[in-house]
Design a protein that fits this description.
Helices cover 42% and strands 22% of the residues. By secondary structure, it is an alpha/beta fold. The strands form 2 sheets. Strands 3, 4, 5, 6, 7, 8, 9, 10 and 11 form a 9-stranded mixed beta sheet that branches. It has a two-stranded antiparallel sheet with strand order 1-2. Helix 5 links the parallel strand 3 and strand 4. The mean pLDDT is 87.
Length: 296
């Protein structure tokens, strides 16, 4: 059996237009070519698809059952061809994007949706990691793009675009001793255990680490659960508290006296200059350049 796309297209047209001649006009073929194609399809399938006793061919029960599957096959074939064509023009086989853990509550999914809309057949993989690990994923090529916090020092082999601002706040469970104080010094923070979102690699130092006593987690959700248990204070996304009212009820934003208790950073999209980017990655960069939010 060797059924091809042209045979399925002709079969579909005969069903929909009701005759060989009407299908032929639609397809720009002569009726005899359509009739021959159907006959060959019936031979390939060893199955009668049309009764030919009257003026017009009548679909058999088998043809009616196969019609909807033929439609699905044609859609899949077209999608396969479009994907192959996109790959030939530089579309990556898949796009890996790493999102820093604390940025899960930012607008990054709306940007990914634009890529999916432009490249519906593309496989997109989202990776979550602390800031330090995101850099390593970029460097090793395991990720082509990264949504991460701005940094004071950018490596010469990296390029970025500012996307939007995000805020982090120092918090503790309301039963924690720090939550009971009206004014907290840096020394107070240093003397109490901090739950830090950090890389699994112990040689990578997290940026927002203040305490001499620290427990590490590689995701802000796990860090939050430890903080809720009163096991330490930590720095969490402000948007996380806004979107989860129960957290706002159980956590206290710490009143820090020595510096502003809210840390505001830009979220950047970062990529490597020395790594070739495919069509989808370039599309996302261009989209963000055209739609970048103004600082607030």
């Amino acid at each position: 059996m060797n059924v091809n796309q042209e045979q399925l297209t002709i079969f579909k047209s005969v069903i929909e237009y009701g005759s060989f001649s009407a299908a032929a006009r639609h397809l720009g073929k002569v009726p005899s070519a359509v009739s021959m194609a159907i006959s060959n399809l019936e031979l390939d399938l060893n199955l009668q698809l049309f009764e030919r006793h009257g003026r017009e061919p009548t679909p058999t029960l088998a043809a009616e059952q196969l019609y909807h599957q033929a439609l699905q096959l044609l859609v899949e074939m077209q999608a396969w061809q479009q994907h192959a064509h996109a790959l030939s023009r530089g579309l990556e086989a898949e796009l890996n994007i790493v999102v820093v853990s604390e940025l899960q509550y930012s607008s990054w999914p709306t940007y990914i949706a634009q890529v999916a809309k432009a490249f519906p057949s593309l496989k997109i993989n989202i990776l979550n990691s602390p800031q330090e690990d995101a850099l390593r994923l970029l460097k090793t090529g395991r990720a082509q793009l990264a949504f991460m916090f701005e940094r004071e020092h950018l490596n010469s082999d990296e390029q970025f675009i500012e996307v939007e601002q995000q805020s982090l706040v120092a918090v503790a469970a309301k039963q924690h001793v720090l939550a009971q104080r009206s004014a907290i010094t840096l020394r107070d923070l240093q003397q109490h255990r901090q739950i830090v979102v950090a890389s699994r690699e112990r040689d990578l130092v997290p940026e927002l680490s203040f305490s001499t006593q620290a427990w590490h987690s590689d995701h802000h959700d796990s860090a939050c659960r430890l903080i809720l248990q009163g096991l330490g204070w930590g720095v969490l996304p402000l948007q996380m508290l806004k979107e989860n009212p129960y957290l706002a009820e159980q956590l206290q934003v710490l009143a820090i006296r020595d510096f502003t208790p809210q840390f505001t950073y830009f979220m950047d999209l970062v990529w490597r200059r020395d790594h070739a980017l495919g069509q989808a990655a370039q599309f996302l960069i261009q989209y963000l350049q055209n739609h970048r939010k103004n600082p607030v």
